[in-house]
Amino acid sequence: MPRFTPAELEAARDRLVPDVAAEGLRVLFCGINPGLWTAATGHHFGRPGNRFWPVLHLSGFTPRQYHPSEQHELLGHGIGITNVVARATARADELTDEEYREGGRLLAEKVVRLRPAWLAVAGITAYRTAFGDRRAVIGPQESTIGTTRVWVLPNPSGLNAHWTAATMAEEFGRLREAAGA
């Protein structure tokens, strides 16, 4: 696992991390925005302690726990990764509401173009702000983007203490069953 100095992490600020995506995926997972560790490595959900990769496996989406550097292997499972906001920051609270709304608009365009069966947004607050839906709750949403159904998941960041890996895996598993994965 790489070790980064504070200066190296700061140098990753505002970097873009390319999507792992293709047309017709079963599920397109969507993070809030890349953290500095993710931007420094170029691997989604790359920070040690982020629970995305363990939860993806525990929920049955993948046959084993992948390392962030293996992110492109997800495509073979009908899974992709993108973000609401593309630019990297140290914390999600550095993003403005306008960035979230613009990110939501661009994400909707991407979803219409790629046509995944499900868009899974990992972060209730990010979803509410990006899509102007203050009443959204964790789980499937009534609204769609084109023909794509939407599911809001808990944020897998280690800072999200309200959800354990086990309870997150249950919610991810509900999505997996709905997606027929």
Automatic annotation (TrEMBL):
One BP annotation, GO: base-excision repair, AP site formation
Keywords carried by this UniProt record: DNA damage, DNA repair, Hydrolase
Record InterPro entries: MUG/TDG (IPR015637), Uracil-DNA_glycosylase-like (IPR005122), Uracil-DNA_glycosylase-like_sf (IPR036895)
Matching PANTHER family: G/T AND G/U MISMATCH-SPECIFIC DNA GLYCOSYLASE (PTHR12159), G_T MISMATCH-SPECIFIC THYMINE DNA GLYCOSYLASE (PTHR12159:SF9)
Protein name per UniProt: Mismatch-specific DNA-glycosylase
Any one GO molecular function term: uracil DNA N-glycosylase activity
Top-level taxon: Bacteria
Uracil-DNA glycosylase-like domain boundaries: 18-179
Keyword DNA damage set for record: yes
NCBIfam families found in the cross-reference section: PRK10201.1 (NF007570)
